[in-house]
Specification:
By secondary structure, the chain is an alpha+beta fold. The chain has helices spanning about 45-55, 120-130, 165-180, 185-190, 240-245, 300-305, 310-330, 390-395, 395-405, and strands spanning about 5, 10-15, 15-20, 25-30, 60-70, 75-85, 90-100, 105-115, 180-185, 215, 225-230, 230-240, 255-260, 260-265, 265-270, 275-280, 290-300, 330-340, 350-355, 360-370, 385, 415-420. About 40% of the residues are buried.
């Protein structure tokens, strides 16, 4: 079969089906020797989500859909809920990975049904959150009135509170699959799925008349780039990470002000073509704004989070150290802080700077709150300084990492803010 996955704890029922004896959850792996019936390319996520929400609404509700990767192969991950068949109440939650190729596909699926007393998750959360706004318009297709409602209770933030609920089990299984599943190299080498010409211009860039969205980039980690769209942190896989890193944080990109002395880089996002424009900070000799276009693919948070490893996180913070060194050369400080900070400097943060003191250049790292005494390098201090050398300035990136590890903020939710001396 095209997908190899972990079957630990499962009993094989037949050649393509496994059952968890503890929960009754059923896993199936199916190969279809047909052109996939997906309504859009994986790269056209807005249309794909919309059309899937419409179709699923006829039988239940699409809870979420994301473009992910199994191994190195693009896949569609969905979570849907449908009523328990032939029962007056209760639901079945289905998580599925579809790996589409040009003329075939493989689907790995988990079905988890409510058993015993149903609706407990919803009942408890309604009591906590209230009825107002409980049922919401579907985020992918607001016009859909599905057989089952889209509501607050299915949000993943509540999975930890209901770890044994079938929806929580589906998401936990999905996290494990993304970490461990592999796609057969022969199947992966087949021509990719492309419905008509849907993805033909994905890397070309915005079409004439496209509406570009100004977004703030977060920290690039392991080939992924968070983009803040208003107050929402979204996650994107970079087609050309080196192109992005060659512009980001180096003082050459356009900026947006948080205050009259605090600024962040901005990029222009065109979701329809899955590209970002990295606009120059200053106008060209002809008076126009030039920039570089590169491809990005929106992914689920779970995929971006899986890219954080013992290797990629330190490398991302070493990059911050290099950004700090470049900022010092142009007379700026760098603050590493949550993307939700939108005004004056506030906790938590790390400030990296190079200042003149008695005729010498001093590299300074200052953080708030003060890290615990056992924090590596900081050792309970809130401020560290050393003669400014390339090594001491760039070490500020790792100092920021160790301070960040004591915060409640996720690395993918951090941003860089620049302040002139």
């Amino acid at each position: 079969m095209p997908i190899a996955f972990d079957t630990t704890g499962l009993h094989q029922h037949d050649r393509t089906t496994w059952v968890d004896p503890a929960t009754g959850d059923q896993v199936s792996l199916t190969y279809f020797d047909l052109v996939p019936d997906l309504p859009a390319s994986l790269d056209d996520l807005p249309k794909l989500r919309h059309d899937l929400a419409v179709t699923t609404g006829e039988v239940g509700c699409l809870i979420e859909a994301h473009h992910v990767r199994l191994g190195d192969v693009p896949a569609l991950f969905q979570v849907v809920k449908v009523p328990l068949p032939d029962q007056p109440s209760g639901q079945v939650f289905i998580g599925s990975f579809t790996v589409p190729r040009a003329g075939s596909s493989a689907v790995l699926k988990l079905q988890a049904a409510e058993r015993g007393r149903t609706g407990m998750r919803e009942a408890v959360l309604v009591a906590q959150l209230g009825f107002d706004g409980w049922v919401m318009p579907h985020p992918y297709a607001p016009e859909v009135q599905g057989r089952l409602p889209f509501h607050k209770g299915d949000d993943p933030r509540y999975d930890a509170q209901f770890a044994d609920h079938p929806l929580s089990r589906v998401r936990a299984w999905a996290h494990h699959v993304i970490r461990t599943a592999r796609v057969d190299p022969g199947f992966a080498a087949l021509p990719p799925f492309s419905p008509g010409a849907a993805g033909a211009e994905a890397a070309v860039g915005p079409a004439v008349g496209s509406t570009l969205t100004t977004v703030v980039p977060g920290l690039p980690v392991g080939g992924y780039l968070p983009l803040w769209i208003d107050d929402e942190c979204t996650f994107w896989r970079m087609t050309e990470p080196d192109v992005v890193l060659g512009k980001l944080g180096l003082g050459t990109l356009a900026r947006t002000p948080l205050t009259d002395r605090r600024f962040r880089d901005v990029v222009m996002l065109d979701e329809s073509s899955s590209t970002i424009l990295l606009p120059n900070r200053y106008r060209s000799d002809g008076g126009g704004i030039e920039g570089v276009v590169t491809g990005v693919t929106r992914v689920a948070g779970v995929e971006a989070h899986e890219a954080l490893t013992a290797d990629t996180v330190p490398e991302a913070f070493r990059w911050i150290g290099r950004v700090s060194a470049a900022a010092a050369e142009r007379g700026e400080y760098v603050a590493v802080e949550p993307g939700t900070h939108t005004a004056d400097l506030a906790e938590p943060h790390v400030l990296l700077a190079v200042q003149e003191h008695e005729g010498r250049r001093i590299s300074i790292a200052r953080t708030s709150p003060t890290p615990p005494a056992d924090t590596p390098m900081w050792l309970g201090q809130s401020s560290l300084n050393a003669p400014a050398t390339p090594d001491t300035v760039e070490a500020g990136g790792l100092l920021a990492m160790y301070a960040m590890n004591t915060w409640s903020e996720h690395p993918l939710h951090l941003c860089l803010t620049f302040t002139p001396h």
